UniProtKB/TrEMBL annotation:
A GO CC term attached to the entry: cytoplasm
Keywords tagged on the record: Oxidoreductase, Porphyrin biosynthesis
Entry EC no(s): 1.3.3.3
Molecular function terms, GO-annotated: coproporphyrinogen oxidase activity
Protein name, UniProt field: coproporphyrinogen oxidase
Pathways per UniProt: Porphyrin-containing compound metabolism; protoporphyrin-IX biosynthesis; protoporphyrinogen-IX from coproporphyrinogen-III (O2 route): step 1/1
GO annotation terms (biological process): protoporphyrinogen IX biosynthetic process
Subunit structure: Homodimer.
Family: Belongs to the aerobic coproporphyrinogen-III oxidase family.
Length: 346
């Protein structure tokens, strides 16, 4: 990245490059599978995006069973948007960013750039993964024409993270994934802080279990003091320092996850598939009931619903009072024990 670029330009360039890198790695993983569908779009209110989605469902007239591809459903989406932020949204954001001016009536221009991905493998023994890295900026006046002055920045922050959701616990996978994130973090205390935040965020209170085995999660990361991060923890503070931190985490995605899809696994049975679909049901519950990003997206006017719901698996299952996971000593019970009590993996 050249130093002359603005943070908006740096982030836009970064998410575009990372999307290309991740999609290419996933396509190389299974060269006989169909390519990701690339859906480029333009936002009428300002901005653009590219959704890269993989889904391998039967075409009309074909057999009912899909091709046995490595992935069942996946999406790697980029959005770079701008527009006007209404007073209600500004009021909510001031809780973490007091520098944002607010009079209850005036809208302010915003800019947001990010990459969001969810990968659902076909095998029950290969874990689902989610990652999201984003940058948000608010200025004090309406943006001028393309290439012109965008106003004074009154608030900015980064957010994101990456987490793993297996149906069956593989400790080797867990150690590899978490160690990759910790190494990219280059700060063990910061990794521990964001790992704890991840365990707390991806949690289903009505089930009293985490969605998966965690990773790292952070939000509203800026030069302002953040209540979730102790002053004793050395952390990036300037925009350039935080951008470098986010970039390392983004670049760590392929080496942290793709090797897990390259491992030799057992052949699953109908029993394993049933458990996988039940676990996917829990994934859906979290995303639709608790996930702030999904809820915010669904409330946004003119939202691209297909992109927002891309995170959901193609198939899932809900059983009334299912006995799976209750058999003592079973692999399903072993998975549930970890979800009830998060562990340290790196």
């Amino acid at each position: 990245m050249t130093t002359s670029l603005t943070m908006r330009q740096k982030m836009e360039e970064f998410v575009d490059e990372l999307q290309n890198e991740i999609v290419a790695a996933l396509e190389q993983l299974d060269p006989n599978a169909p390519k990701f569908k690339r859906d480029s779009w333009v936002r009428a209110q300002g901005g653009r995006g590219l959704s890269c989605v993989f889904a391998c469902t039967p075409e009309p007239g074909q057999a009912s069973s899909p091709l046995q591809t490595k992935l069942e459903k996946a999406g790697v989406n980029v959005s770079v948007v701008h527009g006007m932020l209404p007073p209600a949204a500004i009021k909510e954001m001031r809780a973490d960013h007091s520098s944002i001016p607010y009079d209850g009536q005036t809208s302010l221009p915003f800019f947001a750039a990010g990459i969001s991905l969810v990968i659902h493998p076909r095998s029950p023994f290969e874990p689902t993964v989610h990652a999201n890295y984003r940058y948000f900026e608010i200025t004090d006046k309406a943006a001028a024409a393309e290439g012109g002055d965008t106003g004074n920045v009154v608030a900015w922050w980064f957010g994101g993270g990456c987490d793993l959701t297996p149906s069956y616990l593989n400790e080797e996978d867990a150690h590899h994934f978490h160690t990759s994130l910790k190494d990219a973090c280059q700060n063990e205390e910061l990794y521990r802080t964001f790992k704890k935040w991840c365990d707390e965020y991806f949690y289903l209170p009505h089930r009293q279990e985490t969605r998966g085995i965690g990773g790292m999660f952070f939000d509203d990361l800026s030069s302002e003091k953040h209540a979730r991060i102790s002053d004793d923890v050395v952390r990036p503070r300037t925009a350039d320092e935080i951008f470098a931190f986010v970039s390392r985490l983004g670049k760590a995605f392929v080496p942290s996850y793709v090797p897990l899809l390259q491992k030799k696994r057992d052949i699953p049975t109908d029993h394993h598939r049933r458990w996988q679909l039940l676990r996917r049901g829990r994934y859906v519950e979290f995303n639709l009931v608790y996930d702030r990003g999904t809820k915010f997206g669904l409330k946004t006017p003119s939202a691209r619903i297909e992109s927002i719901l891309m995170s959901l698996p193609e198939t899932a299952r809900w059983e009334y009072m299912s006995e799976m996971g209750t058999e003592e000593g079973s692999e399903e019970e072993r998975m549930l024990k970890v979800l009830k009590k998060p562990q340290e993996w790196a």
